[in-house]
Write a structure and sequence with these properties.
- The complex is a heterodimer.
- By secondary structure, chain A is of the alpha+beta class.
- Helices cover 34% and strands 27% of the residues of chain A.
- Chain A is built from 20 helices and 33 strands.
- In chain A, the strands form seven sheets. A seven-stranded antiparallel beta sheet of chain A has the order 1-11-3-2-6-5-4. In chain A, strands 9-8-7-13-12-10 form a six-stranded antiparallel beta sheet.
- The longest helix of chain A has 46 residues, at 291-336.
- The two termini of chain A are 62 Å apart.
- Chain B has a single domain (4-107), classed as Transcription Regulator spoIIAA (2-Layer Sandwich), CATH 3.30.750.24.
- The N and C termini of chain B lie far apart (31 Å).
- The model of chain B has no long low-confidence stretch (mean pLDDT 90).
- Classes of the chains: A alpha+beta, B alpha/beta.
- Chain A: Pfam families: GAF, PAS_2, PHY, SpoIIE.
- Chain A: This is PAS fold-containing protein.
- Chain A: One of its GO terms (biological process) is detection of visible light.
Chain lengths: 734, 118
């Protein structure tokens, strides 16, 4: 670690790095509650001894045979041939006192740690007899709460600490106390969080391999090893596996600040990764459970570690099953109705919103946006989705962190899950803001450094008073299985859309393509947009729209509708469209052009009927001349209101031999907009045509001025049924 | 509401009352019923759209066809479309169907003095 490049950082960061660099595995010292002798094998000559060895043995020790009787020596030698864990602890007598010797190997030496039995707390035989029951309780726990509560209670019962907490790390390594058993008079720590910095990364790395740490008295004097360097390696002895290892002074200061005198921790490791800790605190004074009791506690921790995965998974499993069921239902819906995907996902018994727990959902298919549940306003949904995709945050529980401009949408979209479907289409789910009270053990944002003569130094937090903060603009996080389900549905949709496209290619004819413009011609100073939605029953409907540039810079914008559906209607539509173009180019105005078109029907297409509206725009002045043959009124949105233009009307085309269409004039000023539409948009509404027109007025009044956005907003809000084709043309000043 | 056509007598004339939605799919049903009534041509026929729930342009086109056929056969046609039935009346007015189809708002507007259906 020490050769890691130290960034040119502020002093605060340097101090933190210094702590992270602290050689906690090779402190060169032990705690004083035992003696460490590092010996050679097989001679058992002492190479390194802790400075307190003379105190325990009454004299310097050069070899183990000086301090062990022959029987103990034989047992030790026997044990060395096998698994050391089976020998530990080796109960021996030293100067008439019982001592537990614990063995492990490191740096080419046998490390023997000698811990007097006297002075250790003993849970007693009774507890160890209960061990099978405790294990049963752990195994029977069906929820994480149960499992960790059993763990905290039984570890405390076994070790006698004043407080035993089960501590879980989050993704950022902040710890949260998720279970606790404590002396009744102590203030609860349950629910408190400890910032990640409380346990540095380097300590966490050690905890992931070493299951147990014990500090019987945080006020101890460290006992140095002699010699300081291992003669075999020239480096300090690796104590990472030693139970007597001396700990970082920063950690001792941290414990002292919490009022903790004795501390023990046991790792909880889920499939190789540090998941949490069993943290034990003692306040009344020094406290040292016996080696046997510590081993039992570690055993409980190891057992719980094995159970963590299945217990956590069981808790999440019911949700997983539900989402999978919804996904299957929706996949079936999509498979049944490849033609009307948007409707299938928004109108059916099971909608996209049902797929996973969310407040709202957005389905944008074939350029049409449909909203379900609580979502941001229609005109904000697409920009938000594009911004999230651009920010590389399609799945987030903190939308405003990825897209700061969306902070005002927190009440509906603090969380978003976006999956593109192909083209500009997408599916999106939204989750509302969840105000989360997070209780910290002390203020995690306070400076961790103090100024000393040697520069800034890390100083553990002094205040551990519960400190809470409210986390805003975040939602319940998206689970991995939910993201998978959403992506699978999107893939199903993309596949269905592809199969639909190939089917359409077979069905639709060049004829229909001639009815619709791929791109609207540009009109200087004006923005135009058009939408055509085919009906579900016929690919080819009777609607058409057109934009005809006229001599002198004016343009005619046409929206028409031939009664009837199918190829016959489409053929008539094509004829009318071209006939009207010819008349528009020749005629003096839209009324005269419609007269000419009406004559075409009377002469050549008897029995047919059509409606059409023609808007002739002079882009240089904004002047509009309008004539309508039985068509629905054009919407004119001005600063004073939304008007259905009723003048300039005449009978539908094909009713009379000679109709004599009148014209009306309006002016497009400022933010004025015109909206032309076919009856499919309004006539099948639940409350009839009149109500449909009223609803449209309401929508248009509040919709954005820009024509593309206007049409999207209208289609989203009106959501016309797919029984008829729907055509919209919007015009506004650019 | 299901589409249905009832034969009856209105204002002393044979009548067809149209229920449900008159659109692309049901207009041919009305065409068949009217053509049946017009063969042989009676002196008069009333088409009552009072209970008609909806009419689209295909329905309107059928009314125009019926009106033209009735005129050609010398049949006195009355189509009842009350102003209270917005779903039908608004479409009729938008298309200006009254230029071709004899529309009345109620039975009262149909002159008296014809015989009932035999």
């Amino acid at each position: 670690m020490s050769d890691r490049p130290v960034p040119d950082a502020a002093g605060v960061d340097e101090a933190l790095l210094r702590c992270a660099d602290e050689p906690i595995a090779v402190p060169g010292a032990i705690q004083p509650h035992g003696v460490l002798l590092a010996v050679t094998e097989p001679d058992l000559d002492v190479v390194i001894a802790s400075a307190n060895a003379t105190t325990m043995f009454g004299r310097p020790v050069d070899a183990l045979d000086e301090v062990l009787d022959d029987a103990d020596l034989d047992r030790l030698r026997d044990g060395l041939a096998g698994d050391l864990a089976e020998v530990n602890p080796l109960r021996v007598r030293v100067g008439g006192a019982e001592v537990d010797v614990v063995l492990h190997r490191a740096d080419g030496l046998l490390l023997t740690e000698w811990e007097p039995v006297s002075g250790a707390g003993q849970a007693g035989v009774a507890w160890h007899r209960r061990l099978p029951t405790v294990l049963q309780r752990l195994a029977a726990a069906t929820t994480l709460d149960d499992l960790t509560q059993v763990l905290a209670r039984d570890v405390r019962g076994l070790t006698g600490f004043d407080r035993v907490m089960v501590y879980r790390f989050d993704a950022e390594w902040n710890g949260e106390v998720i279970a606790e058993d404590r002396r009744e008079d102590l203030e609860p720590f349950f629910g408190l969080r400890y910032p990640a910095g409380d346990i540095p990364a380097q300590a966490r790395a050690l905890y992931a391999t070493n299951w147990m740490r014990l500090i019987p008295d945080a006020g101890y004097q460290r006992v140095p090893l002699e010699p300081a360097a291992n003669p075999l390696t020239g480096r300090p002895l690796d104590l990472s596996g030693a139970m007597l290892r001396s700990v970082s002074p920063v950690h001792l200061e941290y414990l002292a600040n919490m009022g903790v005198v004795a501390s023990m921790s046991i790792s909880l490791i889920d499939r190789g990764r540090l998941w949490g800790l069993i943290a034990c605190h003692h306040y009344a004074g020094a406290h040292r459970p016996s080696y046997a009791d510590r081993t039992a506690a570690e055993f409980l921790g190891r057992t719980a570690s094995l159970l963590l995965h299945t217990t956590v998974a069981a808790g999440e499993r019911s949700g997983v099953v539900e989402v999978a069921q919804r996904q299957a239902q929706l996949a079936a819906v999509v498979g049944r109705t490849p033609r009307e995907l948007a409707a299938a996902l928004t109108r059916g018994e099971v909608t996209a919103l049902d797929l996973l727990p969310a407040g709202g959902a957005a389905v944008r298919i074939n350029r049409q946006l449909r909203l379900l549940g609580a979502t941001p306003p229609a005109e904000r949904v697409e920009p938000l989705v594009r911004a999230l995709l651009a920010a590389g945050a399609p799945v987030t529980d903190a939308v405003s962190r990825a897209v700061p401009g969306a902070a005002d949408l927190a009440d509906t979209a603090s969380g978003a899950l976006v999956v593109p479907v192909g083209g500009d289409d997408f599916l999106a789910w939204f989750r509302p803001e969840t105000l989360r009270e997070v209780a910290w053990a002390g203020n995690p944002h306070l400076s961790k450094t103090t100024q000393t003569e040697d520069g800034p130094r890390l100083s553990p937090r002094r205040s551990f008073d519960a400190w809470s903060e409210t986390v805003r603009e975040t939602s319940v996080p998206w689970q991995a299985h939910e993201v998978v389900a959403a992506r699978t549905l999107a893939a199903d949709l993309a596949a269905a859309a592809l199969s639909r496209a190939s089917e359409d290619d077979r069905l639709s004819t060049a004829l229909q393509r001639t009815l619709l413009l791929e791109d609207l011609p540009k009109v200087p100073g004006f923005a135009l947009a058009a939408r055509y939605l085919p009906s579900s029953e016929d690919v080819v409907g009777g609607d058409w729209y057109d934009l005809v540039p006229l001599p002198g810079g004016r343009v005619s914008i046409v929206l028409g509708d031939v009664a009837g559906h199918g190829l016959a209607a489409a053929a008539i539509t094509a004829q009318l469209r071209h006939a009207l173009r010819a008349h528009l180019l020749r005629a003096s105005g839209p009324g005269v052009a419609l007269d000419g078109l009406n004559e075409v029907i009377a002469a050549l297409l008897p029995g047919e009927m059509a409606t059409a509206v023609v808007v002739e725009l002079d882009p240089s002045t904004g002047e509009v001349v309008l004539a309508s043959a039985g068509h629905l009124p054009v919407l004119h949105v001005t600063t004073t209101g939304t008007h259905l233009l009723a003048d300039g009307r005449g009978p539908a085309l094909g009713l009379l031999d000679s109709a004599g269409y009148r014209e009306t004039r309006v002016r497009l000023a400022g933010e004025d907009r015109l909206l032309l539409f076919s009856d499919g948009l309004v006539e099948r509404g639940r409350d009839g045509l009149a109500a449909g027109l009223e609803a449209l007025r309401d929508v248009v009044r509040l919709a954005p001025a820009e024509p593309q956005a206007l049409l999207d907003a209208v289609l989203t809000a009106i959501d016309p049924p797919d029984t008829d084709d729907v055509t919209l043309v919007g015009i506004a000043r650019a | 509401m299901l589409f249905a056509i009832e034969r009856g007598t209105v204002a002393g004339r044979p009548s067809l009352t149209v229920r449900g939605e008159l659109d692309l799919s049901t207009a041919p049903v009305l065409a068949k019923a009217v053509d049946g009534e017009l063969t042989p041509p009676p002196p008069a026929l009333v088409l009552d759209l009072t209970p008609t729930a909806f009419m689209d342009s295909s329905g309107a086109r059928e009314l125009v066809r019926i009106a033209r056929k009735a005129a050609a056969e010398g049949v006195e046609l009355h189509v009842i479309a009350p102003h209270t039935n917005g779903a039908v009346r608004l479409t009729i007015d938008l298309l200006d169907l009254g230029t071709v189809v004899p529309i009345v708002a109620s039975t009262a507007e149909i002159p008296a003095g014809r015989e009932a259906r035999p």
